[in-house]
Amino acid sequence: MMSRTPRRGRRRTAAALLVAALAWTPRGIGQEEPAPGPAGSPSVEDRLRRLEELNASLLEQNRMLLDRLDDLSTKYDEVIRVVGPATGTEAPAPPSDPAVEPAQDLGMPPLPGPSPVGPMGEPASPVDAQPDAPRLDSVAPPPAITGSGRAGAIGGYQTQILGSRGEPAGQSSARNRPIEAPFSGEGRFPLEAFYDEGFVLGSDDEDVPFLLKTNVRMQFRHTGFDRSRLAWVDSAGIVRPILERNDFEIERGRLSFEGFFYDPDLQYYLNLDFDTDDQHVVIAQDFWMNYRFNRGLDVYIGKAFVPGSRSWLEGSTRTQFADRSMATTFFRPDRSVGIWALGEPIDKVFYRVMLANGFNTSDLTFEEINEQLAYSGSVWSEVIGEYGRGFSDLEWHDELAVRLGNSFTFAPGSPADIIFNPVSEQDFVRLSDGTPLFETGALAPGVTVEDFDIYLYAVDAALKYRGLSLNAEYYFRWLQDIQADLPLPVGRTRMYDHGYYVQGGYFVARERVELIARHSQVNGPFGSGQEYALGFNWFINRSHYLKFTFDANWLDAIPAQNSGPNYRAGDSGMLFRSQLQVAF
Fold first, then answer.
1. How far apart are CA 133 and CA 7, in angstroms?
2. What string of H, E and C letters represents the secondary structure of 486-518?
3. Is pLDDT larger for residue 474 or for residue 117?
4. Which of 32, 296, 348, 540 is close enough to 382 for a disulfide, judged by CB 3.0 to 4.6 Å?
5. Alpha carbon distance 43, 16 (integer Å)
6. What mean pLDDT is predicted for residues 98-103?
7. Residue 266 pLDDT > 70
8. Helix crossing, 5-23 with 44-83: angle to 10°?
């Protein structure tokens, strides 16, 4: 650190040289003595006396100038210490001096008085302010908030914007853009608030970094169903009416919170859900905390998807139709509480494995589930190109992108004590004609199923290329060791069902309008059901965050039941759905 003494010495030396130059007599080196003046002019003695007076006056002014220069140097060093150098480069800081109080007024110190006298003793023009002296209006302001150049813990957080976050955060920078703070460096605020595809509040504090990101999503839907027959008969012989409908609903009203705390790798996610067809009850649809060790290992605890199907893991934000297919709805597991891990151990090869309470125990209490845990896992790979998220080729891949995957789930035993309700979604296992497995008489007259093991295997494939997208998934389900309160007929202690969906889309207006088509089917020992659908997507702002979807679905004796996609077991007829999705 440089002291102020050398700078003051240099300035005093310069001032002394200036005074000496001004004080030099006309009889300098190589000058001749002037001739005597005319009569009445001052004598030589008078001129010498006046010169001595001028020299004495000049010495006094020199002393005053040195004092002012010393004071100016002190003030200058103090200003530099407080506001930094005016040029933006860091100047050496002076040694700390406890006698010097922090500057309260950063204005310029007063300019020195009259400059040294001219050659004949008259005052010269006032000396201009030193060019390198700092001015308040020349001090560089803090960087403007431009939305770029963000760094730190906040800048490193990877987020899945408005999605299920089923895959590792680092799959692709194009798909998972990091949340960024407005700016970083000297002068940043300890708490930052901004909008980046969500409302973000965060701190880059080294001791306790923190980030909270809030998103809102709503799917406002009109559903119309025109039945083709009045009723259907299930395998227990019960006649069930087929109902028509024409109504508006909020299918998904989501409020989500995500971010990190204490450590950018210690993250959390909370998804609150409100549906008008779920008795207007708000529930924690998803809630987890996770720690990201590296790209290949991210460990979670909480409640989330059981990873038994690719279409299920993709979430509801980026579905190509208003909702998932009939076959997916029939076979897929649900959410559950448990422990899971996911990652990308090899480039473009991903996995997700879970140990959960059960196959479909999303909202059940511990009295309603058994002591057996469910095991589920999914592995997939982007074998060609970067496939991305969602099924529509909204990114418009100029080169072919292909994804292949498979999933497996094993859940031993059924929920232990379920009060049967034929329209309840917790009675998730249904026969291929739509009859709930727990219904008395479903497999034999007067016999009620009490327990079983379930195995589900699914294989999936998808591609995208220049606005065209195709994807399909095939499901295989085995119900093993079926037990009942009475003996079952031969061949009813195990059961095999299978089915599939295939769907595609093509953008007739790039990033704006997509035409879509789908077919799905379920087959089993009690019959089969089918779905055929056509529709379109209008990506209003070229994203899934503001999207209108219309689809028309022909249903033929479907076995699936779920209020989300508006399927009811046994339905036959035409289903129309118009949906506006808004997310921010």
1. 14
2. CCCCCCCCCEEEEEEEEEEEEEEECCCEEEEEE
3. 474
4. 348
5. 30
6. 36
7. yes
8. 160
